[in-house]
Amino acid sequence: PKLPQQQAMAKVVNPPPRYTHPEWTFSNNQKYRNAELERAAAERLKAESDRIIEETAKKTAAAQADVDKKLNQRLNDVKYWREEVDEKLAGVSGEIDRLGAFISRVDKALESYQEPLHISQQCLINREGRIGIDLVHDDVQKELLKEVEVNQGAQALLLKTLEQAKEQLRLNRKAKYQLEKDIADKRSAEQLDSHCVALKANSAGLGRSPCAVGIDSKSVSPEEWQELSNRNILEAEKQRQNSAHMCSIVDGILQAVANDLEKQKSCVDIAVKRRVAETRDSKAKLEEHLAQVLAEVKDMEVNIDKLESAIAEKEQPLKVAETRLKVRGARPNVEQCRDPAQFRLVEEVGGIQASVEALSQRLAASRDSLKGLLRRQLDLEEEIQIKANTLYIDEVQCGGLRGSIQIHSF
């Protein structure tokens, strides 16, 4: 018996089937028709391909030319707005420098006006050293207090102005930053679009970037793009005008403050000059009166000496008269007579005693007058010393300090 493998081999080598002649003819004709149809289809495809190739080539060239045109138009738009922004940036930058210079002037003014304020306050402190009646609330005191008030008010105004100027400077710099950022973006866009315009089919570095095809959802429209630059320009112009106005205000305030301080300094100096002249005149009059009092003291001392001498001169005549009366009182008996001599002796003693009493009264009055003159002398000397002290304070101390005051209009 045959094995199963041998049976399978026997089936493989079976003879092929046999076809009839019509079948053979039909098959050949079918192959001819199929080849003809395939060839005709290929001819049509080649013709269509040539047409599409030519059409797509024209379309691609037209599209690229249109893109080049639009890129050039875009470059012109970007360049135009960049120049507009750049021009506005130059104006804002110049205004920043100008406002910075005005801020520096305010800083210098604030620093400079510290010294006049200190001098005014020191003058007030020095004038507290006046003595007695000279510690008066005079015009100098009033003007010095007003000068302190004016200076403090000026500094407060300058500090407020400085804060406003610094805030304006911050806004200027903010506007400048926005313009610089806009310019930087536009320059970058110019470079990129210029590179795109320069790219040709034979340029090096070309490559497929399928992921770059499409419109970014975060991109802005041309109107929005233009509006952003326009908004930056308008804001920059607004801040430039505000800054120019601020500079004008600062300049006016600096001038006004300097004028006010200079005017008040002049008022104080005039008041000090008048007060010094008034005090000097008062001191001179006091010294004149002192000289008269000193002369009167000397005269009164001479008068007292004369009165004392006159009283002393009456002592001996009185002794003589009283001794005579005593001696005559020893007359015996009827000899004790009230004769004219007796009456005259009694009258002489009374006259001498009356003269001594009158002289003594004048002596007491003269001594009282001398004491009064000496008190007036001390009062005048003390008052002259007070005036000298006041003159030293007002003329030397305050005058010396105020001589160094310099008011500048920064």
Describe the protein's architecture and organization:
- By secondary structure, the chain is an all-alpha fold.
- It folds into 2 domains: 60-199 and 223-273, Orthogonal Bundle (Helix Hairpins), CATH 1.10.287; 290-330 and 338-404.
- It has 6 helices and no strands.
- Helix 2 runs antiparallel to helix 4, helix 2 runs parallel beside helix 5 and helix 3 packs antiparallel against helix 6.
- The longest helix has 107 residues, at 222-328.
- This is Tektin.
- Residues 276-310 form a coiled coil.
- Residues 1-27 are annotated as: Disordered.
- Microtubule inner protein (MIP) part of the dynein-decorated doublet microtubules (DMTs) in cilia and flagellar axoneme. Forms filamentous polymers in the walls of ciliary and flagellar microtubules.
Summarize this, please?
The protein has 410 residues and is an all-alpha fold.
> Distance between termini?
134 Å
Count of the separate structural domains: 2
- In terms of DSSP E residues, the strand content is under 5%
Mean pLDDT metric = 90
Unreliable stretches covering 5 or more consecutive residues = none
The geometry reads as: rod-shaped
Query: Nearest-angstrom radius of gyration?
Result: 64 Å
Derived from helix and strand composition plus strand pairing, the structural class reads mainly alpha
CATH architecture of the largest domain: Orthogonal Bundle
The beta-strand count equals 0
Q: What fold name stands as the CATH topology of the largest domain?
A: Helix Hairpins
Assembly state: single chain
**Biggest pleated-sheet summary:** none
Return the CATH class of the largest domain.
Mainly Alpha
Subcellular location: Cytoplasm, Cytoskeleton, Cilium axoneme; Cytoplasm, Cytoskeleton, Flagellum axoneme
Coiled coil: 276-310
InterPro entries: Tektin-like, Tektins
Keywords: Cell projection, Cilium, Coiled coil, Cytoplasm, Cytoskeleton, Flagellum
